[in-house]
Amino acid sequence: MRNKPILILCGEPNSIFSEILVKSINNYKTKKPIILIGSYKLLKSQFKQLKMKLILNQIFLKNNKVFNLKLNRVNILNVDYKFKKPFEKISSKSNKYIEECFQKCFRIIKYNDIAGLINGPISKKTFLKKNFQGITEYLSNKFNIKDKFAMLIFNKSLSVSPITTHLPISKVSKNLDKKDIILKTILINDFYKKYFHIRPKFAVCGLNPHCENFFDKSEELRIIKPAIKNLIKKKINIDGPFPADTVFMKNILNKYNVIIGMYHDQVLAPIKTLYNFDAINITLGLPILRISPDHGPNFEMLGKNKSNSKSLSESIRFLDKIK
Hints:
Elements: E1 6-9, H1 17-27, E2 34-38, H2 40-50, E3 56-62, E4 65-67, E5 74-78, H3 95-111, E6 116-119, H4 124-128, H5 135-142, E7 150-154, E8 159-162, H6 169-175, H7 178-196, E9 202-205, H8 219-233, E10 238-242, H9 250-253, E11 258-261, H10 264-275, E12 280-284, E13 290-293, H11 310-321
Helix pairs in contact: 1-11, 7-8
C-alpha cells in the first residue's frame, strides 16, 4: 500500500470506544486511511444510540491482502459479534470476539504494510484473566519477543516508562533486573532518535524512599546504579537515581524528556496528574508501533456521550504524522 493505513482494533465491545472513535475522527482528519477491526453491526447500533454518525466502508481480505480500501472513509474489517442491545455489561462473553479481532489484526500486520496498531480499551480482568499482566505482555507473547519490550507513556513534553509493569507492589523488588533497565532504556532511546531525531535525556527513579534503605545492599546499589553506569558507557544521556518524590518537581523534570520508574504507579500517577488524557501508551520492541489510549473501558460512562476522546485523538494523530 502506498499510503500505510492506521490499524485500529475496537477492543471491548461494551466500552466507550464507539463514542471516542467518532469524536476523534471528527476532531482530526487523517491523511492516512483508517482500518477498524470489529463488529460493523455493533458499531452502527452504538452510533445510533449515541445519536452520532460515522460512515463506515466495509473491506475484506483476499489472500491475506486488504481489498476495497478507501482513503476518504473509515474502513472496517467486520468481526461478527452477537449482542442483544448496543451496550451490555462487560463480561467474559466478549473474550472470543476480542481474540478474533486480534487474530485478524495479526494477519493484516503479517501480510500488509501498516503505519501502526491502536487497540481500543480492553478489560484486563475478563480478557486476560491470569494469563498475562496486561495487553503489552499479551502482544509481546504473540509476537514472540518475551520480555524484550518497553512501555512508554508518551507526551511530547515529558514521557515516562515503568521498568516493571502490572505487578503487585510486593513483587516489584524481586522482578527488578539490571539488564531489563538497560534494554528498555535503549529501546526508548532508539525510538526518540528514529522518530524525533534527538538524543533524549533520561532521569531514573530509585525504588526506595529518598533512594535509601536500611541495609547495605539496596536495589539502588545492586541494580539501578550499575545499570545507569552501563548506559552512560553506551553514550546514553542519563542521570540518577533520583528520589521519586522530587523528580517530578519543575526544576528537575524540565531538564528531561523521559523519566524511568521502577514500577507502574511510581510514574503513571504523576504523568496522569500532569497531563490527564493527553498521553498515549506506546509499546516499543514489537515489529510494529502499538499504541493504546491511556484509559480503560469505563463502564460507568457507557452511552452517555460524555467521555474524553483526547488520548485516542492523540494516538491517531501520532501515527498519521510519522513516516
